[in-house]
Amino acid sequence: MSALTARLLLLTILLFPDSSLAGFVPQEYTQANFDSSYQDQPVHFTRDASGNFSGTTMSGKMFTQTYVAASISVRLQKFSIDKASFYISSYGIINAASDIEALSIYLVKARWGESELLT
Fold it and tell me: Pairing mode, if any, of strands 62-70 and 84-89?
């Protein structure tokens, strides 16, 4: 590699650091790395009779999106991939350690409204 090529490569990495990581899927998604990692695209998914989803990403990772609670007044789903999981609701994403904690947060948001919780 010539000196000019090495300098151009170094300059490219310094100016565009994220481009070297684009498309990098972690070996394992965790709670700590999920938000900051490249999000692998689903290539196949199926829906069961209960409305739960399961599928596979481009890199072969399996994921699920299952109902925690489903009624006329409560719609709460849990998304899981590897060791990472979070909850999806009409009030947005909920990060919780358990289904009961997520449902409790959901019910507080439903009772008081999202905007009132932030003040």
Answer: unpaired
Domain count, the chain: 1
Domain that holds residue 56: 35-117
Which residues of the chain are modeled with pLDDT < 50? Answer: 8, 10-22, 116-119
Residues in the chain: 119
pTM, to two decimals: 0.73
Residue that has been written with the tokens 């100016």 in this structure: 15
8 class by beta-carbon count within 10 Å (0-12 exposed, 13-18 middle, 19+ buried): exposed
Q: Which helix (H) or strand (E) holds 42?
A: strand 42-47
Three-class SS state of 98 = coil
Predicted confidence (pLDDT) per residue in 51-62, tens digit: 899 999 999 999
Whether 22 is covered by a domain: the verdict is no
Residue carrying structure tokens 């289904």: 99
